[in-house]
Design brief:
Layout: E1 4-8, E2 12-17, E3 24-28, H1 30-40, E4 45-48, H2 55-66, E5 70-71, E6 82-87, E7 93-98, H3 106-120, H4 127-138, E8 148-154, H5 163-174, E9 179-183, H6 194-205, E10 210-214, H7 215-221, H8 227-236, E11 241-245, E12 251-255, E13 258-262, H9 275-289, H10 298-302, H11 306-324, H12 334-342
Parallel strand pairs: 1-4, 1-8, 2-6, 4-5, 8-9, 9-10, 10-11
Antiparallel strand pairs: 2-3, 6-7, 11-12, 12-13
Helix pairs in contact: 1-9, 3-5, 9-11, 11-12
């Protein structure tokens, strides 16, 4: 496997109810949708999320294979998580969850990522060199990186315990070789204590290089201050880039170089399921195209210009618009996105 992008977080089965159609089951979860979005944009993707050894778990496994995504974890004995989504007449979704978010330890997950790294390298010429390479991977030596270039985390997987603490540990281990992105995608029904949710979100923000949130996230987490004030406060915690999606009002972004805005593209909305995840995937894809992902490029990412930020926002907003023009989380392919940007 060549250098890849990884996503860690929940995968589940969405059972969608609406006033106009019978319930439909399909694979979802914000991190899973980001992984699919990256794969459709022609990146090698590894997904670290749990699933059960049941019908829904096998549905998830089939979806991963169909998208060409490598699953880091095998199925386990617990039931696959389920989200029941209800669409209102405007296509906005509300959710109820039945979740299990228990992961192997951060060390075990690191071992699995290291195993992928070893598979991607030619065999060492002698045992002593093999031991040295393995030690470099285990300790995240930037001079001897494995193929992991970027790791995305977020949503329920970075809020719900006990797995969220494991995700935090994985990010700490990965930072030496990879850049990190985070999307809180905050669900008050799962973490009703706002202060606890803020603390948890800010711990992840401090570990990340790229942040994406929605205005809904900001309103729920920080109702006492403006969106711009929250973006500025988050940037001070350490990230290079903070973007915020604003639904029909477009998106905005903030870096150390400055602030930029992007109007929403005019479309006929089918629903908004997965729109933010398509935005995230296109953001990471664009940054990779600018050669700004990977720990060795972290300093360059922190120097991203406002022109580059504007390009990121435009591309990501177009990807979100394509997703919202069709039912369910259906991120665009690389060809679809390129054609839309040219038109």
């Amino acid at each position: 496997m060549s250098a890849y992008l990884a996503v860690i977080g929940e995968c589940l089965v969405d059972v969608v109810h609406s006033e106009t159609s019978a319930p439909k089951a399909h694979v979802g979860g914000s991190p899973f949708n980001v992984a699919v979005g990256l794969a459709r944009l022609e990146h090698d993707v590894v997904f670290a999320g749990r699933r059960g050894d049941d019908d829904y778990g096998r549905m998830i496994a089939r979806s991963l294979r169909a998208q060409g995504i490598t699953a880091l974890l095998d199925a386990d004995a617990s039931p696959t998580s389920v989200a029941r989504a209800t669409l209102d007449p405007t296509g906005q979704a509300s959710y109820e969850f039945t979740l299990d978010w228990t992961l192997p330890s951060a060390g075990e997950l690191e071992d699995k990522f290291c195993a992928l790294a070893r598979e991607s390298k030619p065999a060492a010429a002698d045992p002593e060199n093999a031991d040295r390479e393995n030690a470099d991977l285990q300790h995240g030596d930037p001079a001897q990186p494995g193929p992991l270039e970027h790791l995305h985390a977020g949503s329920i997987g970075a809020m719900l315990q006990p797995g969220a603490e494991t995700v935090k540990g994985v990010l700490d281990r990965a930072r030496a070789v990879a850049t990190i992105s985070y999307d809180p995608n905050y669900r008050p029904t799962l973490v009703p204590n706002r202060e606890e949710a803020r603390r948890q979100a800010e711990e992840f923000i401090a570990r990340a290089d790229v942040i994406q949130a929605s205005t809904d996230d900001l309103d729920l987490l920080y109702p006492e201050r403006s969106h711009r004030e929250t973006m500025e406060a988050w940037l001070q915690l350490g990230p290079a880039l903070v973007t915020v999606t604003r639904g029909p009002s477009g998106a905005m972004g903030l870096t150390r170089a400055g602030f930029a805005e992007q109007e929403a593209f005019s479309i006929e909305v089918a629903d908004t399921v997965g729109a933010g995840d398509s935005f995230m995937a296109a953001t990471l894809s664009t940054l990779r195209g600018m050669h700004l992902l990977g720990a060795s490029r972290r300093a360059a990412l922190r120097e991203i210009s406002t022109d580059q930020l504007a390009t990121v926002l435009r591309t990501a907003a177009r990807a979100a618009a394509i997703n919202s023009s069709r039912f369910g989380a259906q991120p665009p392919t690389a060809d679809e996105l390129a054609q839309a940007l040219e038109s």
